[in-house]
Amino acid sequence: MVKSENKFSSLFLKYLRKNPNKILIIDEKSNTEFSWNDCYKIMQRIEKFFEKNKLRAGDTIISGLPNCIENLFIFLTCMTCGYNYAALPEQFSYYEKKKLQKIVKPKLIFLNKIITTKNKSGEIKINLDSKFLWLPEIKKKKSFSSYASKIFILSSGTTGKPKVIVQNINNLILNGHDFLENHKFVNAETVFLNYLSMSYLGGLYNLLILPLIANASVVVTASFSGITFLNIWKIIERFKINCLWLVPSIIKGILKIHSKNSFQIKEKINRYLKYSFVGTAPLSDKEKKKFEEKFGILLLENYGLSETLFITSENLKSDKNYGSRSTGFLLKKVKLRFEKYNNKFQRILVNTPSLFEGYLDEEGMLIRNLDYNGYFSTGDLGYKKLNKLILAGREKDIIKKGGFLVNLREIELITSNIEDVYEVAAIKIDDEFYGETSIVFFSSKKKISPKDKEKIEFEIFEKITSSFAKQKWPKKVVYINELPKTRSGKISKFKLKQVYEKSITK
Fold it and tell me: What mean pLDDT is reported for the chain?
């Protein structure tokens, strides 16, 4: 194990000494507040628990816990005390859990209310609780480890099987400082709401590490669900949340459920909530404009990957040109290169100090993935204009149909503007005649009859055929009750393809 400076430990101790009584974490469920000093005491006890289970710096734990205050403190302890943290999505099957264990080789596993250790047969049953009664008391304080912890994150798996990404806590700190340089309004007075899943970087980095870097406060609640749609404004008002992080699927849901009472909501929350970051997936201009106008909350788009962390970010100086497809300004230390993909598109290549360490293979061996002289291929296509990055689509969303290039994102954008279309995704499929073609899946805002379904399918097809050359037309338009999602809220085209393949084998 190679030791290096743990930048997160240094940051935590800095704020602890500076303002120990400043409120850092608020548990929405129990309404309990935790200051920097409270957090420090709990983290010391968790480290003692780790030591009792024969863990040392550099060892790995897996957490399959839902969003809760216990999971949050386990993660923070790992980051400050030099343990590696592997995030396990709750919905993973038994087979998937076993596979992850084989790859990351944990010494300790947190799963619901059961903790499994490598050193003992069977399982230790512990009632995890927000009062931390399951933890040992400490008599003597320990110093934090200098080992820079690793974070094992599963990729979203939108177009295939998830990969295990290896990030480093120091990368999150470096990138976080650069990100916040663009956003001076995030400070010690800022209150974030953390409801994105802690099984990916949205919940761990965007809504936990970033606020901590800014010495802001974080309200922790259960991960996003249908209940959140109904309660989100009540939570925002109750805790005076003044900074949100949204994803397109949540914006769509809020617009659907709260469109009729948006004026009352706007009046209540605009006293303190004026900005929200948005990311993880493209947001249509139509939805962005509609949300901003209805709720008076400015949406600041961001672009990044788990492998690179943040690459670009819109700030308060960004113009509101809804048709630009801009993802904002480049962060200071980010370098871009563009490689010709074809006559129309360019691959986006990234070099940044926050670049991931690599992927883990099925045996847990680290595989580097820098094939472009130190640059990482994002899988996205685009170009730079006035220090802003303009996205043109995903490389995997460009198909070659009968010798013609088709950007599936273009089809999705024009289809999403149809009134009764809620969500839409175009997927690539093999075709005997053309080589490749597409299928367009859509869901509706409301329950629809078979007659309505046919009507909307016809409307979609008519819109596409009147807007694009024949080569871009999809093979089929298919209605689906709900488009499958990844845990980060992205539409899973991999699962949609499985749906299609299953339908043609019946």
Answer: 85
Four-way CATH pick for 7-389: 3.40.50.300, 3.40.1410.10, 3.40.50.12780, 3.90.76.10 = 3.40.50.12780
The CATH T-level fold of domain 402-505 is GMP Synthetase; Chain A, domain 3 (3.30.300)
Look up the pTM and report it. Answer: 0.82
Q: Which residues contact 503 (CB under 8 A, 6 or more apart)?
A: none
Q: Could you give the CA distance from residue 482 to residue 68 in angstroms, rounded to a whole number?
A: 27
> DSSP assignment of 304-321, as one string?
EETTTEEEEE--TTS---
pLDDT of 227 over the 80 cut: no
DSSP secondary-structure letter at 158?
S
Question: What average pLDDT does range 28-42 have in this prediction?
Answer: 94
Categorize the per-residue pLDDT at 146 as very low, low, confident or very high, splitting at 50, 70 and 90. confident
Domain positions in the chain: 7-389, 402-505
- Res 321: pLDDT: 57
Give the mean model confidence (pLDDT) for residues 410-417: 83
3-state secondary structure of 418: coil
Burial-class residue 234 by CB neighbours within 10 Å (0-12, 13-18, 19+): exposed
CA dihedral 216, 219, 223, 225 (to 10 degrees): -120
- Cα dist from 45 to 73, 149, 392, whole Å: 10, 18, 49
What is the spatial order of strands in the sheet that 421-431 belongs to?
421-431, 435-444, 476-479
More confident residue, 504 or 121: 504
